[in-house]
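Hi X.,

You mentioned you wanted examples for the new student's onboarding notes, showing what a folding record looks like when two proteins sit in one file. Here is a clean example. The first protein comes first, with its sequence line followed by its structure tokens.
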Amino acid sequence: RLPYSSARRPARRRLLVAPRHVAPPYIGMQQLDPRDLAGGPVRNLARVRRIPQHLAVKLKSPGFVCMALGGTIICLLLMQPVWNSILMLHNPVLLHFLGKNPPAIIITACVCLVVLYLLSVFLFFRYNKKASQSEQNVLLIANVFTMMLGALVLIISMPIRRTGMSLQSEILEKCQHGVQTHGLYMTYVRSLALRRTSGCASKESVDMCQGFSETPNTDLLKDMEFKYKCSGWGTPPTLEAHQPVAGSISFLQLDEQQAGLQDRPSSAAARAWSFKKLPQLNSGGAAQAPTQGPVYVYPPTLFSLRNFQATCDGMAARDCSYFLTDTADGLYYEGLYLMIISIGIGFLKLLSFCMKDNIFTRNKKGRPGHPEYGGTDRRYVSQGVLG
């Protein structure tokens, strides 16, 4: 008699088999107490069915993963235009000349694109058939939104560049009578006349003087003065003194100076030191003399006594032009790269159709997929399933 006969062999405990209608992905069936295994499958099923439905936590489906991953990538790609739009809203100079509509339109378009992507993925996985939820269709959605994102940033970059060029031209060339600069120039002229009065010239700021009226244009002039360290708007500096920057003297004048030094009764060391101090000849035959260039007088600052030596119109034109041009260039290249990526995805899809055996047609040849959780079918390595 064998030591482990059928009579003495311990009874095998049946493990819990989950019903098909309570198939995963649900957590709660996997967190059972060890005492549930002693009561048999009937008792276990009864205990499982008594679990409240609101306590069952559904695992992440492919639709949720696509929504989270794709939404994160789109938000990262849209970070540059949204961030530049926020900077425009916080820049008083750009806000005065451009207004709030262009940055608000950019932010709204970016938010609508993200919402449209999330809604499309949700509807695709919620109301579409399981058979059509393949990798090829998911790749098609990614390709469509990549192309839409590239087209969006390309369309945004073009008017931004044109606006920067036209704004720079108007500020530098039509600062006094431009459509957007004339009101600011008239406000500056009135404030400058008040600043040059005897009772206001010694004060710290023109807003302390009697007769000053605060307007949005005066606030903009004050912001530009402290931000750019400048003074004046549409009033070029006046020329106070003018001398040649690089004056030249002739050979006759140089010989007369040398002869005058030689006639002086001085020592040889003194004469040698004096000759070194004379202007030296350059390659063109003329001697360069240290002379003073033109001296310009800038208008006084309105809101301080610092009297900065730079014009506010020139500083504002350069700042607006550089910021808008850099923003347009960044958006243009980003949109160009996204369009190239979408074209590459399209060629990859076309190449996948030309392959004899690919991941899109593999399930159509009769190869079984992963069995459902709780199923009784055996899984074999020959069927493409490990474990």
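Then the second protein repeats the pattern, sequence line and then tokens:
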Amino acid sequence: MSTAKLVKSTPSALLYTRNNVDDSVK
């Protein structure tokens, strides 16, 4: 259960971070 949660959370965290970087660049 913990593994599935990490796998599901990791992509969201990466997308969130990427969006923040894009906002900073803009």
